[in-house]
């Protein structure tokens, strides 16, 4: 919550109240937003900890509201979860992300992974597998470049079902990341039952890394756990060189954060990739 508050204050123009009339208005404009093409994807890179090279990107949803300006996902996704609109919105998200990734591939950039966030309702939607399969076929996206980010708490809602869905996704060749790791209550022994590829250490641990011995030991424990399970360990919310150095020394594999860049629209992201890959 600490992280989110800071984020909203700094980078979004709109602070929505939870007033019920406003919620109602928001809900009806959310219904129109899809057909009016008001949703945007911003992209933030993931870097290899040792080489600093970009390994992929995460797609992050924004709503460019005609009157309210740029709205943060945390301001409308909870409502979209409640009213079910997150399912079609989410479908638009992975469709757009896959098409963008294919376009960058065709432009000759190296194979970079594309991470997409899923919310609980989407994850439990019976059409998820079919929708993803269709998207992969329609866009020509290489399944192994698509990484679905699922939060730790979502995975614990119904473990047998989660395992089943994840196994089906793996069979399609898609990669799975466990997001916000360390904030949920997963039994660590259960973790090995999930077919995972990546663990993302929650930004709240990274934030106080330099000052908090407790956060340092938790971070080290998560890295070791991930490594022992053969997973790629990614730190999110890395904002300073001190944090990056610490993570590198402790063998974290990849990182994301304002230290390198903020999420940005596709055109800007493409320019930064051109700089990096000198094309
Ligand atoms: P998340 O998946 O944990 O994404 C990380 C959030 O941290 C993003 O906020 C990102 O902009 C922000 N961030 C990145 N680097 C830093 C940093 O160095 N410092 C700080 N303080 N923050 C950093 P954002 O874009 O506002 O997204 C918030 C959350 O909304 C995401 O958290 C994710 O749970 C959800 N979300 C975003 N896009 C989607 C989507 O397409 N579908 C679904 N279902 N959820 C989404
Ligand atoms: Ca994420
Ligand atoms: Ca996260
Ligand atoms: Ca988070």
UniProtKB/TrEMBL annotation:
UniProt signal peptide: none
Domain of life (superkingdom): Bacteria
Single GO BP term: cellular response to nitric oxide
Cofactor(s) for this UniProt protein: Mg(2+)
Name of the top EC class for this enzyme: hydrolase
EC number: 3.1.4.52
Stretches assigned to the EAL domain: 23-277
A GO molecular function held by the record: cyclic-guanylate-specific phosphodiesterase activity
The entry's keywords: c-di-GMP, Membrane, Transmembrane, Transmembrane helix
Catalytic reactions on record: 3',3'-c-di-GMP + H2O = 5'-phosphoguanylyl(3'->5')guanosine + H(+)
Protein name: cyclic-guanylate-specific phosphodiesterase
Upper taxonomic lineage: Bacteria, Pseudomonadati, Pseudomonadota, Gammaproteobacteria, Oceanospirillales
Stretch of the intact protein here: 255 to 533 of 541
